[in-house]
Structures are given as C-alpha cells and as structure tokens.
Amino acid sequence: MARTSRLLSLLQILRGKRRPVTAAALAQELAVSERTLYRDIAELVAQGAPIQGEAGIGYILRPGLFLPPLMLSEDETEAIVLGLRYVEQRGDDTLGRSAREALAKIEAVLPPAAQEIARNPVALPGPSHKGFPDNRVAIEVFRSAIRAQAKLRIDYGDLNGQATTRVIWPIAIGFMNEARMLAAWCELREDFRHFRTDRIAAASEIGERYPGRRSQLVKSWRAVMDEIARR
C-alpha cells in the first residue's frame, strides 16, 4: 500500500474507533510493522491531525477532523446514497430536508466518476411511501425532548381507544413501514414502551430532566429488544 493511501486508511480506522486502540492492533490492521505505524502517527500529528495518545497506551482521534468522502468506494457511495434517499422518503420534514442537503454536499466533493454513481445508483429505495398517519404533536417536540433528556407528559390513546396520561423519558424515534414510534421509559409501567406518534394527543415537557445518560438508556433498551428477539 502506498504511504499516502496508508495514512488515509489509518485516519479512517481511527475515525471509527470510540476508544483508544493500541499501536499493535493498528499495525496488524494495516499489515505494517509497529515501527512504521509510529512513524505514520507522527507524520499525521505533524500535519495537524488531532490524534491523542502514546505508545503503550493507545491512540484515538479527537473530534474536529472531517475526512471528505473522496475515499469512498463504489459500494460505499451506493450505500450512502441509498440510505439518504430512503431517509428523504421516509423521514419527517426535518430529516428529509437534511438528507437532501447532505447528499448535495457529498456529491459536490466526489470525483466525476463517483458523482455519476451517486446520480445514477444501482440500488434504489423503491417508490415513494404512501405517507404516515398525521400527528397531532409535531415530531420536533419529541426530537427536542430527546436531545434535552426532558421528561414528557403525554396523553395517549391505545389501539382500542383507551386514553391514558403518562410521564415518559423519550430516547428515540423509530420510522417503521406504517407508522412512527417513540421509544421511551414509561414511569407508569416502569419499563420501556413504544408509542405510535399519531396516537399521542398531547405532549408537554414537565420541567424535569430524566436521570442518568440517554446513551445508557438506549443501551439498556437495545438489550431488552435483543432479548425479546431471541425468544
């Protein structure tokens, strides 16, 4: 592998790591010696890459470095375009607009051959969706509460029309084939629950943050979902 390509590959590997990774592991992944790896790290740091760490402990790429998508393979380009087109069709207004803007930015920095792939991809998301049931509460209300870790009081009607008022800790919005779902911890049930957004008649923040970190709640929720899937 040419050194320039190897340096870019090293940056890409580091970008995908959430925890420090040792020089030995990086060298093995790149199929080079540790001595070469240390030289490459030093060169990237000298060029301004925000790599933090040291020999014997590990290295991590701090936030702040943007790698342009010029390194994308044909299959990677296809995957990104397919994903963004799907979000444009299935997401709410905010996500749909953001998907279009993101795709335009990516296409602008791709080389001509890759631009052709992006504009005429092999994989297509299929026909436009017929639409989701109308919400009485804007999706932005839920998105804002999730980002702020804010408790919500909601008025919810189940499949049989039974109405309840609950206090929930919203953690994620799911875009299903026929409806949008709000995943949350429900104080009434003392467990994770999923609420169709079109059945939420009203929602308001109660002025409290839910405890802990949302990331930990999401991790616990995924563990519950995995357990259900294994049954």
Descriptive overview:
The protein is globular and about 65 Å long. Helix 2 packs across helix 3 (34-46) and helix 4 packs antiparallel against helix 5. It is an alpha+beta fold. A hairpin with a 4-residue loop joins strand 5 and strand 6 (191-196). The mean pLDDT is 87. A five-stranded antiparallel sheet has the order 6-5-4-3-7. Strands 1-2 form a two-stranded antiparallel ribbon. 45% of the residues lie in helices and 23% in strands. The chain has helices at 3-15, 23-30, 34-46, 74-90, 93-109, 112-119, 139-148, 214-230, and strands at 51-54, 58-61, 150-157, 163-175, 180-186, 191-196, 200-209.
Q: Could you tell me how far the N terminus lies from the C terminus, measured between alpha carbons in angstroms? A: 46 Å
Low-confidence stretches: none
Helix content: 40-55%
What spatial form do the alpha-carbon principal axes imply?
Answer: globular
Strand content: 15-25%
Number of helices: 8
Main β-sheet description:
5 strands, antiparallel
What structural class results from the helix and strand content?
alpha+beta
- Element pattern in H and E: HHHEEHHHHEEEEEH
Arithmetic mean of pLDDT: 87
Give a brief rundown of this model.
With about 230 residues, this protein is α+β, with helices and mostly antiparallel strands. It has eight helices and seven strands; from the N terminus they run αααββααααβββββα.
Kindly list the characteristics that best describe this protein:
231 residues; alpha+beta; two-stranded antiparallel ribbon; 8 helices; 23% strand
